Amino acid sequence: MTTPTERVRAAFIALAESNGSEAARPEAWITVRSEASAMRDAEQVEARLAAGEDLPLAGTVVAVKNNIDVAGIVTTCGSASMRRTPTEHATAVQRLVDAGSVILGVTNLDQFATGLVGSRSPYGAVRAVHDSTKVSGGSSSGSAVVVALGIVDAALGTDTAGSGRIPAAFNGIVGLKPTLGLVPTRGVIPAAPSFDTISVFARDITTAERFGEAITGVDPRDSTSRGWPADAPHAASPAPRLVIPNEKALAVLSPSWRSAFAAAVDTWVSLGAVIDEVDIDPLLQAGRLLYDGALVAERTAAFGDLIKNAADADPTVASIVARGATITGVEYVRDRQKIRAAAAYARAILANADALLLPSAPNHPSIDDLLQDPIGLNSALGRFTNFVNLTDLSAIAIPAGTVDGGPFGVTLVAPAFHDAVLADLARRFANVPATTSWGPPGTAVAVFGAHMLGQPLNNQLTRLGGRKIDDIVTDPEYRMRALPTVPAKPGIVRVKADGKCIRGERWLLSPAALAELIDDLVEPMVLGRVRLNDGTTAIGFLCEPIVAEMGDDISERGDWRTYLAETAKPRD
């Protein structure tokens, strides 16, 4: 395992090497901490480990978008007029530090987090990693680039209209966009306060989940903070149903981009997904309201006074914010009602689906093209992203191959608080096992028969959003009998003597799902505490002893699948 000091040293070596090569992207940073300062933090992490602290992010380094406060480092929001030095970390940053990560520095962004391109900054236009003539995507431009270069393990961005997804797609990395409120925004300079969230960039889904888990949780001092509801699911369906845009919505894609998206859809089909087309035009229309409608007043309210007097104001950003000053309250209320209608439509098309699958972006413009049409091209990039936060949806952007010599990415979108479902789908697409779980808290349930994976009652767990955690073995205190039921199932009973170890599975269920499972439980099954051979216990399926005596004792088999396999063999 890499120690914190070794990882910090490696990060500075990677930074130096990148600056001396064609991959040099110094414009991605606004402030890089001194190596001595970062090493002192790493040494403190090692001391905490030695003292026995549990630090899940020890041995990692992180970068932070410069509209998120890092104590002692100037927050600029991409404008000298904003310069101030916070005395405390933003909540999310503090949680990373508490978990053992070391901050390397703060990154460039589209000014006041207004833009999807990465070029609206007096600190320089941030270029894509694979092609210096292309935009990096924004507004979280620097954060995405320093992750893609391998300098840091993860980076915090923000996402209002797609700023945590477009740069991920353009640089071939993962962009995790949580449900609004799951990650506190205290210490974040708002762009559109009703629709802002912190996002996570990482090179793989496992790392994105680790960092997402560390920063998630209610902050009582944050008025926008929300916790996981009791019915938040933990996983997607075994054979997921995905909805995709119809041909009308995809018509803006070039032939090569259309083919890249079709290839991603084919991959999902090969993984067992069911694909249906839907009309997303109501969502696309809603997305336009963020900049072209009255919702632009959110930005004017957030930082209009600052940019009005900023000597280094980006002209495009300034013109957008100035337009918001003319919006009336009546116009704003009317557009908020349109958003509510669009949110209801989104819930309807996702009611029987695990996720909506989209191209993350419709194209990848060059910096020169953007100079010719700074507003039009930026607006076009938000086609498949703008509506997500407006309609209170969760999302994750993941790499999905290449297009025109560069990265191609897709985004999975689901209802609010279905973030764990999206992470599960992302792992399946990348063929990555679930080694961590970013998602709601739940209850572990031990199953030993017909509820196990591939067995006839397993759908009772999967339809409730349950996720298999691991395989388990009981203490040698149990007997297993084959019950005369339909479908066939075993009865597990704890005994005083002559018990055996029984193999099974542990599943994670939300509190609401567990309550529904109990409500659906049929005799002779009961839920009780099961002792496991690792010294822990779990709620598990047991059987009423008087009924179990009716079945054949099959304890010597050790598990239900072995019994089924043996009884299925033809006899001579």
Structural class of the helices, strands and pairings? Answer: alpha+beta
What's the number of domains?
2
Low-confidence stretches: none
Beta content: 15-25%
CATH superfamily of the largest domain: Amidase signature (AS) domain
* DSSP strand count: 19
C-alpha termini separation: 55 Å
Question: What CATH architecture of the largest domain would you give?
Answer: Alpha-Beta Complex
Principal-axis shape: globular
Number of helices: 20
Rg from Cα: 26 Å
Nearest-integer average pLDDT: 95
Strand neighbour order, sheet with most strands: 1-3-2-4-6-5-10-11-9-7-8
**What is the third-level CATH name, the topology of the largest domain?**
Amidase signature (AS) enzymes
Helix content: 25-40%
CATH class of the largest domain: Alpha Beta
Sheet having the most strands: 11 strands, mixed
Describe the structure.
An 11-stranded mixed sheet has the order 1-3-2-4-6-5-10-11-9-7-8, sandwiched between helices. A 5-stranded mixed sheet has the order 13-16-12-18-17. A 3-stranded antiparallel sheet has the order 15-14-19. The chain has 572 residues and is of the alpha+beta class. It contains 20 helices and 19 strands. The mean pLDDT is 95. The protein has helices at 4-19, 35-50, 91-98, 141-148, 166-171, 205-215, 247-250, 255-270, 281-292, 297-308, 315-324, 329-349, 367-372, 374-381, 387-390, 419-430, 459-462, 511-520, 545-548, 560-568, and strands spanning 29-32, 61-65, 102-107, 154-159, 174-177, 197-202, 241-245, 274-278, 355-359, 393-403, 406-415, 443-447, 467-473, 478-483, 489-494, 503-509, 525-531, 537-543, 552-553. It is 34% helix and 20% strand. It folds into 2 domains: 4-225 and 234-430, Amidase signature (AS) domain (Amidase signature (AS) enzymes), CATH 3.90.1300.10; 443-568, Roll (Hypothetical upf0131 protein ytfp).
